[in-house]
Amino acid sequence: MTIPRGALAALLVAFPLAAAQRADASTVLGSPDATATPDAFACAACPPGQSLAFQQFALRGATVEAPEDGVLVSASVSARRISGVDQPKVALLRPAESGVTVADSVPVPVSSATGETSDVDDLHVPVLRGDALGFLFASGQVDLGVRAVPRPDGAVQTFSPPCDPCGSDGGTGSELLFSAVVEPDVDADGLGDESQDPDGGGLGTNWEDDWYADYDEGDALDADVSSAAPRHVRRQLRLLKAQRGKEGATLTLRVPRAGDVSAAITLPSVRRTGAGPFLTILTGELRVKHAGRVKLKLRATAPGERVLGRRGRLRTKVIVSLLPAGGPLKVLMRSARL
């Protein structure tokens, strides 16, 4: 199909807004990389014997509040053992009228004296939209790894549990090196749909094939055309191949003329029906100097890295656009298995 050139701005604005809506996919709360080497420790100057909790409430490039209800399935923390045997806890913090409440918590075994990453898996902690993470520990026994980030980024809150609700104070310039994975739980059985529930949340094991069953436009990739094909056929924008790679994906396209090519690969936000808005997992763009076959490399978005790192082959929607100089915008949509 073709879209008038004047509609380009509206299309480019609307698409990322739609992709940012509800996305029923796993979310990493907290540090984007809890395995990073700490620059320092959060409580190096704290008197021993205090009961403390740290919460990251703002960090650029990170998600610090659960975007939807789900299940916390795993957690990671970079922490060091100073003394004692008490295990710290990753806590689920829930907004309250004043501060937050500790809705639930799970112990994390910490034994390293140097701040190595400790993990805990196979968790089944219910999460509500708006919940955040906290790390609870006794000063002098355990300490939490942190990295310095440019101020005013990296806002942190600290408080002393137990409390209900918890008062807090603020700070900036620190990335707390702990995180947790929250997965959707469509059928509310307490199992994360992506890694724990064998039937994908009641959707069936073939849901990725099923959600495109009623999609009429482009259930197969396009066939290539020769230079002898009729002019109106050669002027079509075609997606010939979609291939997943280590650093993203590559699309093989047939473009009818020079111009700016861009593409996005998406997953459905409402998996039960395959409806949008869609989660954008890969994007790329390229300036094409002449008509013919071209290869467009796509890089993963932050949510895409998480999905692609945990999932095998995916049934996706591919949106490709070509903006020729002085011509109307051409857009095609195809389904593709990556």
Outline of the structure:
This protein is mostly beta strands and 338 residues long. The chain has helices spanning 8-19, 207-210, 231-234, 302-310; strands at 2-3, 27-30, 40-41, 51-58, 70-81, 89-95, 100-107, 117-120, 125-127, 132-138, 142-148, 155-159, 169-171, 174-176, 178-183, 238-245, 248-255, 259-270, 275-288, 292-300, 315-323, 329-337.
What does it look like?
The structure is a single chain. The chain is mainly beta and about 350 residues long. The chain has 2 domains: about 1-20 and about 205-335, Immunoglobulin-like; about 25-185, Jelly Rolls (Sandwich). About 10% of the residues lie in helices and about 45% in strands. It has an 8-stranded antiparallel sheet. It is elongated. The chain starts with a strand and ends with a strand. Mean pLDDT is about 80; it is low at about 1-25 and about 205-220.
How do the strands and helices of this protein lay out in sequence?
Layout: E1 2-3, H1 8-19, E2 27-30, E3 40-41, E4 51-58, E5 70-81, E6 89-95, E7 100-107, E8 117-120, E9 125-127, E10 132-138, E11 142-148, E12 155-159, E13 169-171, E14 174-176, E15 178-183, H2 207-210, H3 231-234, E16 238-245, E17 248-255, E18 259-270, E19 275-288, E20 292-300, H4 302-310, E21 315-323, E22 329-337
Antiparallel strand pairs: 1-22, 2-15, 3-11, 4-10, 4-12, 5-8, 5-9, 5-11, 5-15, 6-7, 6-10, 11-14, 12-13, 16-17, 17-20, 18-19, 18-21, 19-20, 21-22
